[in-house]
TrEMBL record:
This is Amidohydrolase-related domain-containing protein. Residues 70-418 form the Amidohydrolase-related domain. Keywords: Hydrolase, Metal-binding, Zinc. It comes from the Eukaryota. Gene3D superfamilies: Metal-dependent hydrolases, Urease, subunit C, domain 1. GO terms for molecular function: deaminase activity; hydrolase activity, acting on carbon-nitrogen (but not peptide) bonds, in cyclic amidines; metal ion binding. It comes from Perkinsus olseni.
């Protein structure tokens, strides 16, 4: 759908990108063949979205991408970006074994501000090249992640992760989390602090209430894992006589500021509660499949009115940060989730909305982000659909979700070009030498633990 604000200025004051298709992700799911996006270079906000044939005469095309589709940048709503040095460290495990036997011991040994910065550099580099323009992160040392995000010019919603590790430090974690959220110096054009509780099974209810008391006055988001595996759901109910969603509700966290990752094992009643509360569910299809956690009933949640967005989860359990792949998996698995099969479930247009405007709603930035409409900020990506492996293209949205193979060529965030022809222009690549050092140390650590385990059972 064409939409326009007068563009009386021309030349260096505005930018106009013409492309083979403009995928707006507006209410009508408009796709404009041979379309243009025009924006103001000072406000970085969109002035006009229209067919080239309707472009005002005083507006010159800055760049023409005839074989590309341009669409809103994707918002990765659940990540643990610093975990990149652990990519491939422990595959083919269930969730609890993966966490307790491999990930948590390795993190206790190796995680530091340097580790976090290095991992964030690698993940952000990968996210930019695959079309993410924002991410919601959950990890330690949030200042290190924020530093990389600011340098890379990518939107980051992050905070200090809180979980009970059994050493009495959880209250200090909550204090540190509150300081990070409330310190205005931690906010920037690119970085928005939020509150993080790892999960209900690692954060007692009284601590969840403390986090709620911090988040509500500040109006901050709360990011948490919810109902990721059936074993987790069953064990929590066995120990507490209620579900994690009951605990969130009692703690005052079940509301539209909640970003709940996974939500794989939700009953119909719990889905209805999410819908009534406005809580946001983050679907992580590839990570949930890899850890054999299950398949979330995404279409059921959408039909009930739940805002469902997409996330990659960590590079240690996915093992990719590519949101294009998440869209494809979300659509394909959505057709076989739950009782019965439905080829129309989670169609390609729905998958794109989950990766864009639904993510913008989850971070409460839908007035600025998530679609290409007049007045919104220019967070936009260009995808090359002219490559032979993408042919033929009957519907660019279908091609992007079902066919596309790493074809993001250009990325703009806040009107600034951060990727040009697959070259990242902002963030420095992580040190290959330091990654190799960590790989060697982590491999040795894993071998030592394996040897100790074998010896213990000898």
């Amino acid at each position: 759908m064409s939409s326009e604000i007068s563009t009386t200025s021309s030349g260096s004051g505005i930018t106009c990108i013409r492309a083979g298709w403009v995928i707006q992700v507006d209410e009508e799911n408009s796709v404009i063949p041979d379309g243009c996006v025009v924006w103001d270079n000072e406000s970085h906000r969109i002035l006009n979205v229209c067919p080239f044939s309707e472009l005002p005469a005083d507006v010159e095309v800055t760049e023409h991408l005839p074989k590309h589709a341009i669409m809103p940048g994707m918002i990765n709503c659940h990540t643990h970006t610093p975990m990149a040095p652990l990519r491939g460290y422990s595959d083919d495990q269930n969730l609890q074994d993966w966490l307790q036997k491999y990930v948590w011991p390795a993190e206790a040994k190796f995680v530091s501000p340097e580790f976090v910065k290095l991992g964030s550099q690698l993940c952000i580099y990968e996210m930019l090249l695959s079309g993410s323009t924002a991410f919601v992160d959950m990890y330690m040392f949030p200042h290190a992640v924020a530093e990389v995000a600011n340098d890379a010019h990518i939107r980051c919603f992050n905070g200090e992760a809180v979980m009970d590790i059994g050493d009495g430090s959880i209250d200090k974690m909550i204090d540190a989390a509150a300081e990070y959220v409330n310190n205005k110096e931690n906010r920037s054009e690119m970085v928005t602090p939020l509150n993080i509780a790892h999960a209900c099974y690692t954060v007692p209810k009284d601590k969840l209430k403390r986090i709620s008391a911090i988040a509500k006055p500040a109006g901050t988001l709360v990011h948490i894992h919810v109902h990721e595996s059936q074993a987790e759901v069953d064990e929590y109910f066995k120990q507490h006589g209620e579900s994690a969603i009951d605990a969130l509700d009692e703690a005052g966290l079940l509301n539209d500021h909640l970003i709940a990752a996974h939500c794989v094992h939700m009953t119909d009643e719990e889905i209805a509660r999410f819908a009534r509360s406005g809580a946001n569910a983050v679907h992580c299809p590839r990570a949930n499949a890899k850890l054999a956690s299950g398949i979330a009933r995404v279409q059921r949640m959408l039909d009930a009115g739940v805002n469902v967005c997409l996330g990659t989860d960590s590079p240690c359990c996915n093992n990719s940060m590519d949101m294009l792949q998440e869209m494809q998996y979300a659509s394909l698995l959505g057709k076989v989730a739950g009782p019965g099969m439905n080829p129309k479930a989670v169609n390609c247009y729905t998958a794109v909305r989950m990766a864009t405007i639904n993510g913008a709603r989850a971070v409460r930035r839908e007035s600025d982000l998530g679609s290409l409409e007049v007045g919104k900020l220019v967070d936009m990506i260009a995808i090359d659909l002219g490559r032979l492996e993408n042919q033929p293209v009957y519907d660019p949205v279908s091609a992007i979700v079902y066919t596309n193979q790493r074809s993001v060529t250009d990325v703009w965030i806040g009107g600034k070009r951060v990727v040009r022809d697959r070259e990242v222009l902002t963030v420095c690549k992580p040190s290959v030498e330091r990654l190799a050092d960590y790989q060697k140390q982590i491999a040795e650590f894993k071998a030592e633990r394996k040897a100790a385990e074998v010896a213990a059972h000898a």
